[in-house]
Design a protein that fits this description.
By secondary structure, the protein is mainly alpha-helical. The chain is built from 17 helices and 2 strands. Helix 4 packs parallel to helix 15, helix 7 runs parallel beside helix 10 and helix 15 packs across helix 16. The longest helix has 32 residues, at 54-85. It is globular, with a radius of gyration of 21 Å.
Length: 395
């Protein structure tokens, strides 16, 4: 992971973290996440199969579904990176305040989106309470982890990351760069090898899903193996920790700057997963390395330059809405299912709906960010301010 390095400057492990903030806003990462956000939305849109053009529908579905899984991996790694980046003093992080702030960032949106999904599905079942309390991804049953607002399963991993982050960032920040490099390589190798290790165990029950496509053909796969590779919070937590380590190494000026290299490896991985690799390998294994390289390279290059292109700054403003886009997209999927019949339009009409669909999701996110999330942010700041004042009075 450390070859072809172009250090940002000479720093020792002891003083390296002092360089980070600089506290620059990483416009490049904020802007670039619009791409995986769009890919995820398009991958879910493809489930609707709106076009009657079988060839066009097959190409769209076959390409964007693996890419959608890879885009989720991008956000897993990015979430760890961003949490580490905004934590300027790891050793002074207050667990309770941190947890309250992070939970109130995601949980209200999760509840609202789940309620909207419930209203559209109008289906009461046992999975609702575990879903609302972000426990549904721990259950190896698609009726649980894909219940209500289906994409919300990723928040279960986020919750685990929030619970361990204050201790995690403190320990990792004190580790030497050599140890971090070894740990990073181990984690990436583990993510890559998990599907291979699972081949040693029996499949058990098999399931089919509209998203399960291998070599351009629908497949049934092991239910528990799919859950373990793609859904299980402890498996996906590895990617979040990868992001944390990448951030620390970027702060220390120890990361390759080559975006072209990362993109080239990523393109090769996508081709392999569409044409060659078994389905379980296409979920995260094929692309975890190039995505890791890409996130670090984008951040490294931005820190090293004095100028950020104006268009990147503009796009980075939209980037803050990607969480809402992700959380509300499924509501639009459910609405579109009732409004449109499968195979009811031509390829051009169907594809023209894709950017419109994304804009609808962006509009919902924009509204949520300026109303619900704004209200929660203000109340959270007020709560934390009162907690801080109380702590000072009791010292």
């Amino acid at each position: 992971m450390s070859s072809n390095k172009e250090p940002l400057g000479r720093t020792t492990d002891a003083d390296a973290d002092d360089r980070s903030p600089q506290r620059v806003t990483l416009h490049g990462l904020a802007a670039i996440r619009l791409i995986p956000s769009f890919i995820i939305v398009v991958s879910h849109f493809s489930f609707l199969h709106l076009t009657s053009n079988v060839a066009a529908d097959s190409i769209l579905f076959t390409v964007v579904n693996p890419a959608g899984c890879n885009a989720v991996s991008f956000f897993m790694i990015l979430s760890g990176f961003i949490l580490a980046w905004i934590t300027s003093q790891p050793d002074t992080l207050v667990f309770r305040n941190f947890l309250v702030k992070r939970l109130l960032r995601v949980w209200p949106v999760h509840v609202v989106a789940s309620i909207l999904a419930l209203a559209l599905l109008w289906k009461l079942d046992w999975a609702i309470p575990v879903n609302l309390f972000l426990l549904h991804a721990w259950i190896p049953d698609p009726n649980a982890y894909y219940s209500l607002n289906a994409p919300s399963w990723t928040l279960c991993t986020e919750l685990v990351l929030y619970l361990i982050f204050p201790k995690l960032i403190g320990r990792l920040s004190r580790a030497s760069s050599a140890k971090l490099g070894t740990l990073l390589s181990t984690l990436v190798a583990t993510v890559i090898l998990i599907p291979a290790l699972l081949t040693l165990f029996p499949d058990g029950g098999r399931i089919g899903n509209v998203a399960f496509v291998e070599h351009m053909q629908p497949v049934e796969i092991s239910s528990w193996k799919y859950w373990f590779v793609y859904i299980f919070p402890l498996t996906r937590l590895l990617e979040c920790i990868i992001g944390v380590i990448v951030c620390i190494l970027v702060r220390r000026g120890i990361w390759p700057r080559s975006i072209l290299l990362a993109c080239s490896v990523l393109a090769l991985a996508v081709v392999l997963e569409v044409t060659t690799l078994p389905y379980l390998f296409s979920l995260t294994s094929a692309t975890v390395l190039p995505i890791t390289l890409l996130i670090g390279a984008v951040a490294t290059r931005e820190i090293a330059t004095d100028r950020v292109p104006h268009i990147v700054k503009k796009l980075s403003v939209i980037g803050k809405y990607t969480f809402g886009i992700y959380m509300y997209q499924w509501i639009l999927i459910l609405l579109f299912e009732t409004a449109f019949t499968p195979q009811s339009m031509g390829a051009a009409e169907s594809f023209a709906l894709i950017p419109l669909f994304y804009l609808f999701a962006l509009a919902l996110s924009y509204f949520s960010y300026g109303t619900l999330e704004k209200y929660v942010r203000e109340k959270t700041k007020e709560f934390l301010r009162k907690q801080s004042e109380h702590a000072r009075r009791t010292v």
